[in-house]
Design goal:
Blueprint (H helix, E strand, L loop, with lengths): L5 H8 L6 E6 L1 E14 L6 E14 H10 L3 E9 L2 H12 L3 E8 L5 E8 L2 E8 L7 H16 L5 E5 L8 H13 L3 E5 L15 E2 L3 H8 L14 H14 L3 E5 L5 E5 L5 E3 L12 H14 L4 H15 L10 H9 L1
Parallel strand pairs: 1-4, 1-8, 2-6, 4-5, 8-9, 9-10, 10-11
Antiparallel strand pairs: 2-3, 6-7, 11-12, 12-13
Helix pairs in contact: 1-10, 2-8, 4-5, 6-7, 8-9, 9-10
């Protein structure tokens, strides 16, 4: 397929409302304090933010779930939150987006991960994280695996996204069990990894592995000398990809390259560079979640890996032009394809 085939892209997203995607991973709450700076604190050389309002939205795996829902897909959430205000807030938000939250475990043993950003005007000044990154209990992991496997065996999902933010939910053993079940039922699996933060160790058999450039080199265990002008001629990146295929054995590898777009490496075949679609970049937070959601939803509804990657690239180009963690709306993706 030639890149940017508008008719194929339009036909592909028309099927998004039939896609059923399970998302298993680190469910978080992204909170924002919005205000203005008019003076410096007399206590320390730092700005004083006059907070005017607070807003919050789904973060981490919850943002992937939100993106699937805003694109018209059927999102099923699997993860763990605390029995705390942040946990109640993120669950309520996912309900508002129409996600199935029956797979979320509410725990008295840990707190919900919350990232609070302080923003003055269009400038983020700082972020405060409230989290527990210790591994969840074996009993809770078994519950989550059983819930996902049950949906697979009942043919209630078309794809599974493993969204790893290294907050203690995912481990390789969980993925191995689910990937094995998914393969039996021809269900797609995708991992968005976090190797630098102690994320999931290698597992084989994923349909798609989706790191960014720095994560790809970390997964390969080699140093990144920096990008070259043409990603297709980037030999260190190619070596990193070859090492990832050797260690992880995915069917496809999609590496995000920031301003250079993306590059898709199939297990058999030549890499395909997908140039960036971003016009202006205001905030990259959540862009990886959008790519994961769009790419997997596209695969789940019959797209080739290349077409799925191109749609994800278009969606990422939209969301990085927004401030804060924001999803891609179906109408926005439709407009981006038509323009």
């Amino acid at each position: 397929m030639a890149l940017h085939d508008r008719n194929k892209e339009l036909a592909a997203i028309a099927k998004f409302n039939s896609g059923r995607v399970a998302v298993l991973g680190d469910i978080m709450l992204d909170a924002y304090l919005w205000g203005a700076v008019n003076r410096i604190s007399p206590e320390a050389p730092v700005p004083v933010v006059d907070v005017r309002r607070r807003s919050c939205c789904p973060g981490g795996a919850a943002n992937v779930i939100r993106n699937i829902a805003t694109l018209g897909g059927h999102a099923k959430a699997f993860g763990i939150v605390g029995n705390d205000p942040a946990g109640k807030e993120v669950i309520a938000l996912l309900k508002e987006y129409g996600a199935d939250i029956a797979g979320i475990i509410r725990s008295n043993e840990r707190r919900t991960t919350e990232k609070c950003r302080v923003v003055a005007g269009a400038q983020q000044l700082l972020r405060a994280d409230f989290e527990d990154t210790t591994p969840i209990s074996e009993a809770d992991r078994d519950k989550l695996v059983s819930k996902v496997v049950r949906h697979i065996r009942k043919a209630e999902i078309d794809a599974v996204i493993f969204d790893d933010y290294a907050k203690g939910v995912l481990c390789a053993d969980m993925l191995k069990v689910i990937i094995k079940e998914a393969k039996r039922s021809n269900i797609f699996t995708m991992l968005d990894p976090k190797p630098k933060s102690g994320g999931v160790t290698p597992v084989a058999g994923l349909t798609l592995l989706k790191p960014n450039r720095s994560e790809a080199f970390a997964l390969a265990g080699i140093n990144d000398p920096g990008p070259v002008n043409d990603p297709a001629e980037d030999q260190p990146l190619r070596r990193a990809a070859e090492k990832i295929f050797e260690i992880w054995q995915p069917e496809n590898l999609l590496i995000s390259l920031a301003g250079q777009g993306m590059i898709l490496y199939p297990a058999n075949g030549e890499p395909q560079v997908i140039p960036t679609r971003a016009r202006e970049v205001f905030d990259v937070s959540g862009a990886g979640d959008t790519v994961a959601a769009v790419c997997t939803l596209a695969l789940a509804t019959g797209c080739s890996p290349l077409l799925a990657a191109e749609l994800a690239n278009r969606a990422a180009g939209v969301v990085v032009g927004k401030i804060g963690t924001a999803p891609i709306l179906f109408d926005e993706l439709l407009a981006a394809i038509k323009e």
